[in-house]
Amino acid sequence: MIPKLHYISEGNSPKEVLENIQKACTSGIEIVQLKLGNISEKKFLKLANEVKEITSYFQTRLLINNYYKIAKEIKADGVHLDKKHLCAIDARKHLYTWQIIGATANTLQDCEMLLEKQVDYITLSPFKSSILEKKSEAVLGLNGYTLITEALQTETPILGFGEITPNDVSAILKTGISGIAVSEEITKNFDAIKTFHQLLKSSSTEEKRHTF
Fold first, then answer.
1. What is the Cα–Cα distance from 12 to 148, expressed in whole angstroms?
2. Percent of the chain that is helix, strand, coil (3-state, to 5)
3. Cβ distance 198 to 165 under 8 Å?
4. Among 65, 75, 77, which Cα is nearest to 161's?
5. I need a surface site. Which of 95, 101, 168, 188 has the fewest CB within 10 A?
6. 52 pairs with which residues across the strands?
7. H or E element: which one contains 69?
8. Rounded Cα distance, 125 and 145, in Å
């Protein structure tokens, strides 16, 4: 089962990321995606091992952002691909059969392509725009989510992501989106995890396993 609430780690340094993941696990998060840019693969591997110790202690599931070979090496629960040049089929060849693969999409075409590659879940982003990020992709909003989920008619879990706050959850769930990934809103206040869980009613979405 894939939890309905994912925490995407935040922090400007490995130390900050570790501290935030520890707080998220302490506050009851069920799944964490480890993400940190501008860092060498060697340093990311060291950080991933340290994070794995924390998540294992709390029995929290761990996804590795993009580095699928590291995900295999540390036996994380899976990988999340958010770069266009990373292919789920290639990643699958390197992973254990029990590891899950998620990926980010922005359009219906993105989603259809990912479903063909048999990903285990899709993160549809962005829900809202961020002032800090370049607006290179279309902001989807409730209308975008509704149009895409209705067109897809898939049982593969589709998560919303992008500046989502507790006030957005109930409307997002009505669009056919099955869960959410949250970063900044949780990092600002880890008590938000409890609020999000209550709003999502925290029943896990069914996970589709693929055999190869």
1. 33
2. 40, 15, 40
3. no
4. 65
5. 188
6. none
7. helix 68-73
8. 9
64, two tokens: 């590795």
CA distance 32 to 60: 7
Sheet strands (E) in 106-143:
121-124
Residue with tokens 């879990």: 157
Question: Where are the extended beta strands (E) located within 5-120?
Answer: 5-8, 31-34, 61-65, 78-81, 100-105
pTM for the structure as a whole: 0.93
The residue whose two tokens read 């869980």 is: 197
- Give the tens place of pLDDT for each residue, 44-66: 999 999 999 999 999 999 999 99
Q: Which domains does the chain have, with CATH numbers?
A: 5-200 (3.20.20.70)
Rounded Cα–Cα distance for residues 9 and 33 (Å): 6
The 10s digit of each residue's pLDDT in 84-117 is: 888 999 999 999 999 999 999 999 999 999 999 9
Cα 210 to Cα 212: distance, rounded to the nearest angstrom: 7
Q: How many CB atoms lie within 10 A of CB 167?
A: 8
CA–CA dist 122, 115 (Å, integer): 8
